[in-house]
Amino acid sequence: MDTFEQAMDAMSKMDKDEQSKKIGSMKDMCICPKCPSYTSCAKNAKELLFCATGKSFMCIDQEKGCICPGCPVTKQLGLKNKFFCTKGSEKAQRYEHTIWGASLVR
Ligand code: SF4
Ligand code: SF4
């Protein structure tokens, strides 16, 4: 298991309270509001932590750069992807790449 898989495994073993505390602390670390792709719509909707929650809901549709690689959450969770607000969560991007990438190319 890599860092991300270990982190997801640890999260799945937490109770609901621990999970929401962990999510809250990661939201506090999220630097999306400083990103050029982040919009006032996303701010008003309090959208954050797209790497875990997935795409922005109707607020971000233009990629103007992504600062996720410099975010402490990327290091902590061992994220390998970016542009989570437009492309989907780390889990979704990994899963899609694995399934389709692996099965269609061969
Ligand atoms: S990796 Fe990106 S989406 Fe995830 S918390 Fe950091 S800035 Fe936000
Ligand atoms: S996920 Fe990446 S591109 Fe989207 S707002 Fe956050 S830092 Fe910017």
Secondary structure tally: strands: 0
What's the overall geometry? globular
- Average pLDDT metric: 92
Named once each, the bound ligands are: iron/sulfur cluster
Low-confidence stretches: none
Per DSSP, the total helix count is 7
Q: What is the element string, with H for helices and E for strands?
A: HHHHHHH
What value does the Rg take, in angstroms?
Answer: 14 Å
Structural class: mainly alpha
Strand proportion: under 5%
Question: How is the main sheet built?
Answer: none
Helix content: 55-70%
Distance between the termini: 24 Å
Observed structural traits:
single chain; 106 residues; mainly alpha; globular; binds iron/sulfur cluster
Topology of helices and strands:
Elements: H1 3-12, H2 16-29, H3 40-44, H4 50-53, H5 72-77, H6 84-87, H7 90-105
Molecular structure report:
The structure is a single chain. The chain is mostly helical. The protein has 7 helices and no strands. It has a domain at 32-43 and 67-106. The chain is globular, with a radius of gyration of 14 Å. One iron/sulfur cluster is lined by residues 26, 30-32, 49-51, 68, 71, 73-74, 79, 84. One iron/sulfur cluster binds next to helix 4 and helix 5.
